[in-house]
Batch of 2 targets.
Target 1
Amino acid sequence: MLDATSSYKPMDSRIPVADRTGHRIVPETTRRTDRFPGTRYGNRPTMKDVAARAGVGLKTVSRVVNGEPGVTPETERRVQEAIEALGFRRNDSARVLRKGRTASIGLVLEDLADPFYGPLSRAVEEVARAHGALLINGSSAEDADREQELVLALCARRVDGLVVIPAGDDHRYLEPEIKAGVATVFVDRPAGHIDADVVVSDNFGGARDGVRHLIAHGHRRIGFIGDMPRIHTAAERLRGYRTAMEDAGIPVADAWMSLGVTDPERVRRAAREMLSGPEPVTAIFTGNNRVTVTVIRVLAEHARPVALVGFDDIELADLLQPGVTVVAQDAAALGRTAAERLFRQLDGTLIAPERIELPTRLITRGSGELPPAD
Amino acid sequence: MLDATSSYKPMDSRIPVADRTGHRIVPETTRRTDRFPGTRYGNRPTMKDVAARAGVGLKTVSRVVNGEPGVTPETERRVQEAIEALGFRRNDSARVLRKGRTASIGLVLEDLADPFYGPLSRAVEEVARAHGALLINGSSAEDADREQELVLALCARRVDGLVVIPAGDDHRYLEPEIKAGVATVFVDRPAGHIDADVVVSDNFGGARDGVRHLIAHGHRRIGFIGDMPRIHTAAERLRGYRTAMEDAGIPVADAWMSLGVTDPERVRRAAREMLSGPEPVTAIFTGNNRVTVTVIRVLAEHARPVALVGFDDIELADLLQPGVTVVAQDAAALGRTAAERLFRQLDGTLIAPERIELPTRLITRGSGELPPAD
DNA sequence: CCCGAGCCTGACAACGTTGTCCAGGCTCTA
DNA sequence: TAGAGCCTGGACAACGTTGTCAGGCTCGGG
């Protein structure tokens, strides 16, 4: 569970600052102890407070706040005035409780700091915004437990829907939530053991085309460095690699494939191993952006030129010498498609779960077109 | 205001899917119409439902759910069983209403897709997580109205605190919220017209040092391309530039300074202008990562070598020819510092607003050390 | 056998909002 | 002038949870 590690108690104690410290401290500005008049100290004014001040009924305030008809201009003015004076703002928690929908959706991804997920997240946010919803973000750090913890926390907040980039491979824990009506779409990787909407890139086809590209430029000894094989995208891309090699009738040596964490040290070692020995690879296909970046660094120090095609586009790839040829996937499109599907679920337009695959695009910039330097 | 543009009504109608379409559709899987037994159709089970099924009182369920003491193992077992069977999950909205704190904080930034904000956001999230809080994210798209709209929407959700990267320059609209107890920290840029905690980088000093670095390498005609001057960071960096030049006794020509949107086309034009004419600049200082990237592209096509120092680090900057010298700021540290300060406000440890300035770091990689090519 | 202490358990109110429904006052018409 | 109908405003319950408090049970000691 999420747990507090400090004295900040998320859902507790409304004791105001000055009381807690035991004595009233008067800082250079008094803002933090200065409360609105007529409000219980430390609490926000409610509609009841507004109604009392304006001399009207509770419901009349509600009507004004929500722009409902049936209020005289004069009454409305009085209410507005009271709202201003008290600094009232409607409590959406209470509203949610009454109405049933929260107008918020959750996005669980691996790491917001990863350049691949930024645009994806932004795209989801834009769609949410267009539908009047807010976005709650969570990073799973590629940890299945943390993913589950986050997802369930979001469900407890009663998000209307969830966009999940799975870290784990078993999502049966989501069944009760989905049954209970939480719209759910998986992105980038499929869900495990449950039937749900999925939006993915054509990882297999993209990788296959990237490797074919290298083969077409005369390479036969081609290395593959990818993420942990339990990650679906990694497995699919590896499958693409194998297929391309097989189709070309090239037997694949075990030493040419390296799967594991994308930690730079591991990748660096893997690349160096492939590039040394009696039969070094003449080209490398990298399984994602982080791997690509590390391999570029290794190749920069390497004596012979080595061809490279990477999965995922990377910024400035065109300015390197040589430019980095990549299989690009459209992160924003993934996010947008998923979010749109989510809202179609909420609309009631969608019935059966579906799997949507977005195409990838080979962008040639030079590194993939280097001939084998034997 | 946030507004729905589709038929998804955020806070309305609990009519389930099959009812809305008017007829019951039976898809290949029945998951979306399949509800839990004993639950009002389309609604989630509540503690009341659990209590009824377990044959206990409401409060007993509450106790079990919250791990409070005073429940017999046997009773607890029965309750747990009912929870499982019904797929109950506590409704945090109701809990929030009762308890007063939401255990969530809001982060309003410019654009989640910008590589500078990803790590910042992630850092805020990590701190929030350590304090048991969730993070709600919003992009202002550098639009003051949208910033305000987002901030107020977050306040209506009763977030416990706000981390804001300001787009606008007047934040008096936040005064009622701060008075009402919403913890608030501004990051990257100071707040306008209100007294609040701020965490910023040393934009002035960083830019000054970057330009000094160019001067030290013999440059005198140095250009500055930055963001719109109304943005605080842009203004500060410009001030750093001016100061460095002034300190060195170099008069600055108007033609050497270009401020405006970071749109590539604008930046490209600005760079080309500085580089042409009778007295072209021999070095350029760029005001942020987006500008730097565009200028690198321009310089790559340029005949003479031109020195470059950019504000903000960029990925792969070390692998370009020459490597890009930058004034790096630590986005994650900005986020972490701000978030920690936010929770200290919530703790009650903090009283007076403060301004915290984080140092920047000059990273030399080659582009800033090119001599002037006159 | 009775009584008090201590442990479980549940009834009830409250959090702040919105939907329902009704009352009272007004206008308009026959 | 009376009755119908409309408009405005407000009382009340409900949303799902938790804090308070009191009642009932068991058990041990007198």
Note: Residues 46-48, 58-59, 62, 65-66, 90-99 of chain A lie near DNA strand C (CB under 10 Å from a C1').
Target 2
Amino acid sequence: MKTTSTGATARRMSPEERDHSILEGAIGLARESGLEALTVRAVASRVGVTPALIAHYRPGMDTFVADVFGLIVAAEREEVIAAFGATGDLREALLRLIETLLDADRDDVTLIWVQAWALGARNDALAARVRQEMDGWQSALEQIFARAAAAGDIAAGRADTAAWLLLAMVDGMNAHSLVKWAPRDRADLARRALSAVLDSAAPAAIPVDSRPADSRPEPT
Amino acid sequence: MKTTSTGATARRMSPEERDHSILEGAIGLARESGLEALTVRAVASRVGVTPALIAHYRPGMDTFVADVFGLIVAAEREEVIAAFGATGDLREALLRLIETLLDADRDDVTLIWVQAWALGARNDALAARVRQEMDGWQSALEQIFARAAAAGDIAAGRADTAAWLLLAMVDGMNAHSLVKWAPRDRADLARRALSAVLDSAAPAAIPVDSRPADSRPEPT
DNA sequence: TCGTCTATTGAACATGCGATCAACAGGTGT
DNA sequence: ACACCTGTTGATCGCATGTTCAATAGACGA
């Protein structure tokens, strides 16, 4: 495939402008085709510029991929969290949040997340960025759980654990959806995931007394 | 890099032998370096033959990757399920099963799974195989849950839902571990994941008013 | 208007990938 | 011992990847 441009030299931009335009193109490309599609030539073609210029602005694809990943998922997280209705029944709002996270419309971001976990095993810069963004999700969810518990909308429990469990569940289900392994409708999944997380986050609901050896060690 | 062989022609084998040796090499390679490492040349070097021979026995890398994936994860599943102690307290056994699945020793298989979900988005043969192996896990877990419920070791609940939730949680946590995002010790995670799944699978444990639609037949 | 600065290019290099095909060679049966 | 059969090779094609660097061209200040 040839470059989108007609062979003419691209418009001269300030370094900041060009950097921004490159990032824009890369973000769009990753959204459409995943992180694997982020090649020097593909981004160059998208932006309408020579591959050499991409390499000039972004020496080292590893950190470039990490940056693009971070920008995409951070923007999405802020959007989702911002849309979280802070008013009304928080349990209802939580359910809608989970439904949103499981929505098929977000398959593009899901692919990016799953590719990031896989690539992160061999790309330290990306792995670091993935951890950072996951920390962002973890603390955002933890905050929501703590708020809901304080408001009495859900049973009080360990908000951090609930956040970890919910993240794992949502990420696992989304990963499964990439190969179209969706056993039942997602609204039902969301409801069950939420109650699973909320119930387990309340230690009192767990019958520990009946299991003598198991429940004793509780390191934290 | 050069082929492992000293340039001498490889020993002549029967088609079945050679096919087996190629699969063996590919399986070992994938276990060590993931599915992305499965290139014609890498497998050829590993097996000690020419790339052309690999291409001859396995025309089309897509189905080859799918086969290797299937063999690896099917073997692992059978091993894990077989090690599941059918005697004694089934809840205890379930906990050990989850601990096994979350064990860091299985990071190699985890990488393969996560790569499979990512690659499956663009490799239909692989995606089909992934679905097949996930069905295997789903039914194995469902069977275990049903058995445990019948034995009275856990609260009776919908075994299929419990299996789905557990699979999602375990897969999500393992994906997270690929980038070393492990908030707490895995034994604790396993315990909480198990109680989350078991509690939610027992309808009686869920606040009744919040699930009127539950008793209605679920759409496929 | 001219000259300087630098954003941008074009071309090339080294490496890797999957795939193809005529030619070779080692085992097998006669 | 010979010839057939076929597993195996070597060479090569076409394409894609990241990276480098001298040369170019467009914008801006003097």
Note: Chain B touches chain A through 57 residues (CB under 8 Å).
